[in-house]
Here is the input.
Amino acid sequence: MGHGSSAALAQSMLEPVAPLQQSANCWDRHALGANDLDSPDVVDRKVKDLLNKLTMKKFDSMSDEIIAWANKSKKEKDGQTLIQVIRLVFEKATDEAMQSEMYARLCRKMMEQISPKVQDHGIKNSEGKPIAGGQLFRKYLLNRCQEDFERAIKDQAAKAAAKKKGDGEEEIVLYSEEYAAQKARRQGLGLIKFISELFKLQMLMERIIHECVKKLL
Here is the structure.
């Protein structure tokens, strides 16, 4: 697949989602340091711990705690904590394809229960008001799907080019390179499965799931 066709494909597959931009008046959470109770480092550690404990048996209690962390974005104007929580959930879901259904259910619950006070002043609706709550969560999630899908397309194109260039030549594959390749394949399959589960829960359009599965297989 050529570079031009890859870019055109990625453009046609997902709903148009404007890239997230940092607003000029947002506050810098990273400057607060790891000792702040809501700092990115603390959020990262706490949410990862909750995701590691998440099972269907503990789903209600663990998911409530994860949503509570996402709702800390109520104090922000750019939704950075919510974006961080979505990233952690997405990474976990694509790395553990067997649990895709559970993580999709988590996303659905987050969309339904995220506080309407969570807003992004840099993203406005047709009335000029900041997008908030479940609508904002879904927009962030679509951004993440688009980013990962476009990355998968680029990785496929790069692998195809490298294979073509290496034909007829002796190949020496380092262990670290093979491990990275296996991880990429695992996450690619995880992405397909996760997107499929999101579609089942009516969080993604039918057009998206059909094109994603067809082109990523």
